[in-house]
Every structure is written in structure tokens, then in C-alpha cells.
Design a protein that fits this description.
Arc Repressor Mutant, subunit A, about 40% helix, alpha+beta, nine-stranded mixed sheet, 3 domains, three-stranded antiparallel sheet
Length: about 500
């Protein structure tokens, strides 16, 4: 069913369950490393492999991270909570249950405000937070053979347990109503704001492409004017902001088509297909799942004192929403300019470049233009480019002090991105300094005058604007390294024009 027809007939109800993989040095219940990309099954021990007699111990830094995120989300922090065992067959979890939290989560009843653009201007939505709870991640299963990469049709499966036991925070929203046609944008804005919040707190690198931030997208429809939610679907492990948007949009269109055909929406998990932007059925959830939760007998309860919670509250940094307001005021940005920074995911990069000494306008120009283009060409996030904010600030400084032109500066950026070292190293190795001394420029100026007699004659006759052609010839002859201003002065001097 076409999207415009969907929103005329139905009201979407959303629910988002987001998993944030914490950036702790060790796992949730043992001391194994959490470094991404290790050789398979090398970051494991008796505890995370669930060998008999091995006992888990709670990671204190993970608890701190959970409390800090809960406070940033305006949640209440429980004075006492405990872990539970969630039981069902996990092929990628050695002990065949997951240590999680059930009826006693650490943080509850918060909210996060997001802003999206509508036809009538910016609209703010308050997303209610049901709970933030701690748990452990599962291992990673790869299905070998077959065309889809899924278990159906595969020849065999292999499991890497390095990820099993890594600390996770699950953030569950309350039902999100009233978004209407903006539902995909609201979902995307919420996940982006949550990602930026976790990044600002320093609790996770939240790299969706590496799985350290994953979102389960729940969607249901009810007729406009109705009061009963429809049957929901749950699209699992959506791993990019664009995909969150597309998953919501597709499920709204798919479910509306099912309902308009007089059929029934099935409650099930679904999988998002990046290539087509569609979802496919996973497993039915028509029957209530009995996970047989019970308190984990090997773990003591977590009981954060009010004093400790307040100490952690005092460590909260400037949060993303407040930072945007401050930056817009300090840099005198229009709403559109700020939106461009947000959409490019460039605020932190530009702010760090400014902190390193670059003027805001120059920092924005480099990240939003040249570097955004490079990121698009190489299909990596802007923050994934192999160049730091400090290096960009140094390139800006070299242009401002006259060592580089903008054209030469782009070559320096090329060198840094290619791994040739710091900006100054690239300038030296490639010989990219601007030529500004008269001895170096003189020969190029004389050649330009000799090769362009008509332009030279016009200048002698008082048409000083014709000097631009000769300056261009000098720039070409010097590979763009000439100081254009000094070259122009020398041309006029040679031709006797003051």
C-alpha cells in the first residue's frame, strides 16, 4: 500500500528496543577482553564458556555506565535490583541462558526529546523510556553455504564466542503514538539521539556497522480514530539509522496492505533486507514466549546508594541537545546550518576541530564539503575517515598563514588520508608550500607575460583586470603553488602599472 495512503487510513504505533554494547575493557561477568576483531574464540574463559564450577562476577564499570545512561535519559534509578536467567535455546550462548534483568531493571520511567522536520517546521516529540536494563551479549553465528547467509539452505554453521558475555544495555521505549506520517523520521531521530547520548557519555563507541548499537523495531497500525492497537511485528537487529527509517516505512506499507486485503497481521519477528529495504518473516511469536525467568543464584543483587547515584550524576558531560543549543548560539548558525551538521553527523567533529584552533566556518566547510565527499566515495562514516579533527585544524592553519592555498590544502588532506603522516609531513614530502618569494616567482611571471602579449598590452593600457589571465598562467606553471596575490603584484610591477 502506498505510504501516503497508509497514513491517511492508519495511525502507526512504534516501540524501539535498542541494544548498546558497552566499551568496557572486560566482559560483563568475567575478565575476558572485549576488543573488537580478535581471532575467533580467543577471548573466552571458563566463565563465559559456562564450564562447570565457573562463577560470574558483575562488572562494576558496566553498572556505572548503566546508571549514567539512565540519569541522562531522565530515569529513576532503582535502589535495589538483581539479575535473572532468561532461558531458551541459544546456539550462540554456551550456557543456554542469558543473564539479563527481568522484573527488576536498574533504570525506569525516563524520556528523551527529539526534533524532526515537518511540512510546518520543526516538531518535538517526547519519547518515553520504559526501562534501561543490563544484560550480556550472545556469540556470533555464521551460516556457511547457501545464497542468503541464513541457516535455511546453509551447509553448516560456525560460532565465535568472543562476543558472548560482552556487556549490553537494553533501552526499551514506551509505545510511541501520534507520530503519523513522521513515524520513520521519529524512529530514526530517536536512535540517533540515543547514539549521540551514549557517545557523549563515553560508555560505547556505538558503531552500528560493527554491531555495538542495534535496534529492534516494533510497528503496529490502528485505524485513524481507533483506540485499539493492531498486532505488532518486530524487525530484529536493524543496524543503521537509514535502515531504521526504511524498516518502519516498509512495515507500515506491508501491514496496511495485509489489512486492506482483509487478512490478519501475524505477530512475528522479521529480518531487514538492506538491498531491497524490505523485511522478511523470521519466526512466529503468536504463542507467548515462556523464558522461565528466575533470579540468578550466582549473582548478588545490585544496590546503588543514593550518594553514589548523585556522584555519578555530577560526572555527566554536556548532553547533545544542550551542546547543539550552545553551538548554534556561539557559532551564529541558522537552523538550516545546524540541521546540516546534525544530518551529516558532524557536530562533534567540527566542535573538536574548533577546539583545536580552527574558526567555526572553516571547520564546517572542510567537514561538510571536502571530507563528506571523501566519506561518500569510500562508503565509510564521516568519523571513520583516517583523519583527526586536530589534523584538519592544522590544515586550516596552514592555509590561514599562507603556507598553503585551498587547492594545495586538498592535496595535503589526500596525503593524510593516504597514511602519509601529519599535515606538515605531507607538505614537506610533497613539496607543497606556496611560492611567495620573488626569486621563485619571477621566472614564472616573466614567462606568463611573454606567452600572453595581448593580455600584457591590455594591462599596460590600464585594463588591470586582465592580470587575472596572467595570474592563472603563473598558477598553472607552478602547479598551483604560487602566491596568487604576490604573483599579481609582480605582474603589475613588470608591466609598469602601479
Amino acid at each position: 500500500m502506498a505510504y501516503d495512503d497508509v497514513v491517511r487510513a492508519y495511525e502507526p504505533v512504534l516501540g524501539l528496543e535498542t541494544h548498546v554494547e558497552l566499551g568496557t575493557a572486560s566482559k560483563m561477568f568475567c575478565s575476558c577482553s572485549t576488543v573488537f576483531g580478535g581471532e575467533p574464540n580467543t577471548q573466552v574463559c571458563p566463565v563465559c564458556l559456562a564450564l562447570p564450577g565457573a562463577l560470574p562476577v558483575v562488572n562494576g564499570t558496566a553498572v556505572e555506565s548503566a546508571i549514567r545512561l539512565g540519569l541522562a535519559l531522565n530515569c529513576s534509578v532503582a535502589s535495589w535490583c538483581r539479575f535473572a536467567r532468561k532461558n531458551y535455546f541459544y546456539p550462540d550462548m554456551p550456557k543456554n541462558y542469558q543473564i539479563s534483568q527481568y522484573d527488576e531493571p536498574l533504570c525506569t520511567d525516563g524520556h528523551l526529546d527529539v526534533t524532526v522536520e515537518s511540512a510546518d517546521g520543526p516538531r518535538e516529540f517526547r519519547i518515553g523510556i520504559e526501562r534501561v536494563h543490563m544484560e550480556e551479549d550472545t556469540g556470533k553465528t555464521a551460516h556457511v553455504g547457501g545464497a542468503t547467509g541464513r541457516i535455511h539452505g546453509a551447509d553448516y554453521s560456525i560460532v565465535d564466542y568472543n562476543r558472548a558475555g560482552i556487556p549490553l544495555l537494553e533501552i526499551v521505549t514506551k509505545p510511541i503514538e501520534g507520530a503519523g506520517e513522521l513515524a520513520p523520521e521519529v524512529a530514526r531521530a530517536y536512535v540517533r539521539e540515543l547514539r549521540d547520548l551514549a557517545r557523549a557519555l563515553g560508555i560505547s563507541d556505538v558503531r552500528m556497522e560493527e554491531g555495538s548499537l542495534r535496534c529492534d523495531v516494533n510497528v503496529s497500525l490502528m485505524p485513524v480514530g481507533g483506540d485499539e492497537w493492531g498486532t505488532r511485528s518486530e524487525t530484529k537487529n536493524v543496524n543503521s539509522l537509514r535502515s531504521v527509517d526504511r524498516a518502519v516505512r516498509h512495515e507500515m506499507e506491508r501491514q496496511a496492505g495485509v489489512l486492506e486485503a482483509g487478512q490478519r497481521v501475524v505477530q512475528e519477528t522479521r529480518h531487514f533486507q538492506e538491498d531491497s529495504g524490505s523485511t522478511v518473516s523470521g519466526r512466529s511469536k503468536e504463542e507467548a514466549q515462556d523464558y522461565r525467568y528466575f533470579p540468578d543464584p550466582d549473582l548478588v543483587p545490585v544496590a546503588p546508594s543514593a550518594e553514589w547515584v548523585e556522584e555519578l550524576r555530577a560526572t555527566l558531560p554536556e548532553l547533545p541537545a544542550a551542546k547543539r543549543v550552545r553551538i548554534q548560539s556561539e557559532w551564529q548558525l541558522s537552523d538550516e546550518e545546524l540541521r546540516d551538521l546534525v544530518n551529516a553527523d558532524a557536530i562533534d567533529l567540527v566542535a573538536a576541530t574548533v577546539d583545536a584552533g580552527a574558526p567555526p566556518a572553516e571547520a564546517r566547510k572542510w567537514w561538510l564539503n571536502e571530507l563528506s565527499r571523501r566519506a561518500t566515495e569510500t562508503e565509510v562514516p564521516l568519523s571513520g575517515l583516517p583523519i583527526t579533527s586536530a589534523q584538519v585544524a592544522r590544515v586550516v592553519a596552514l592555509v590561514e598563514e599562507g603556507t598553503l592555498t585551498n587547492k594545495l590544502a586538498r592535496q595535503v588532506v589526500d596525503g593524510v588520508l593516504n597514511g602519509e603522516g601529519e599535515p606538515d609531513d605531507v607538505v614537506e614530502a610533497r613539496g607543497l608550500k606556496v611560492l611567495s618569494d620573488d626569486s621563485a616567482l619571477g621566472a614564472a611571471v616573466d614567462t606568463a607575460i611573454a606567452d600572453n602579449p595581448d593580455a600584457a598590452e591590455k594591462i599596460r593600457g590600464g585594463k588591470v583586470a586582465a592580470a587575472g589571465a596572467l595570474v592563472g598562467a603563473v598558477m598553472k606553471a607552478t602547479g598551483g603553488q604560487a602566491d596568487a596575490g604576490r604573483a599579481r603584484e609582480l605582474i603589475l610591477e613588470r608591466l609598469g602599472v602601479s
